[in-house]
Amino acid sequence: MTLNVSPKCVSIIIKHKLGGNNIKRVKGIYDTNNQLNLFATLAMDKPTMAVLFYIGIVSGLRISDLLKLKVSDVKTQYVIVQETKTKKYKHFELEQMGWEYIQSYIDLAQLKPEDLLFSVTRQTVNNYFKRAAKDLDLEDIASHSMRKTYG
């Protein structure tokens, strides 16, 4: 079976792979101070985003998987999640203080075990992250930055 691909399509794919001028690349946040500052900025603005950011950089999960997390998924510090894209199981551990912060968020939001941990969209997350990053003079930060920061 062969696929007929137009030259324009090939050009777009190559530009994407090589970081062409039409593609905006996001960066990871490798400086610990920047991670802490972004977390603090998000926490002051909206605690939901701070919890999402923390779990994202600790787990390396895709934003689609983060947004599917339920309260019952984080009932302990040891979390096991099946990734949607790969169908693989991801295991990660939340630090004690981080887990306690998450539990405080759950209590404050009065979430039940069957509730989604985050009732926001990918675009909402990107908007919050970009706004917080702008306040901190960080560039090219979006929801995928959490995954790039991990590991």
SSE blueprint:
Layout: H1 7-18, H2 32-45, H3 47-59, H4 63-66, E1 78-82, E2 89-93, H5 96-109, H6 122-135, H7 144-149
Antiparallel strand pairs: 1-2
Helix pairs in contact: 2-3, 3-5
Provide an overview of this structure.
This protein is mainly alpha-helical. It is 51% helix and 7% strand. It has one domain (25-149): hpI Integrase, Chain A (Orthogonal Bundle). It has helices spanning 7-18, 32-45, 47-59, 63-66, 96-109, 122-135, 144-149; strands spanning 78-82, 89-93. The protein is globular and about 35 Å long. It starts with 6 loop residues before the first helix and ends with a helix.
Total strands: 2
Strand content: 5-15%
Q: Indicate the radius of gyration in whole angstroms.
A: 17 Å
Order of helices and strands: HHHHEEHHH
Rounded to the nearest angstrom, the distance between the terminal CA atoms is 38 Å
CATH level 1 name: Mainly Alpha
CATH architecture: Orthogonal Bundle
Query: What multimeric state do the chains show?
Result: single chain
Q: Decide which structural class fits the backbone.
A: mainly alpha
List unreliable stretches of 5+ residues.
1-23
Stated plainly, the CATH topology is called hpI Integrase, Chain A
CATH homology group: Intergrase catalytic core
Q: Strand order within the widest sheet? A: 1-2
**Helix content class:** 40-55%
Instruction: Report the principal-axis shape.
Output: globular
Count of structural domains: 1
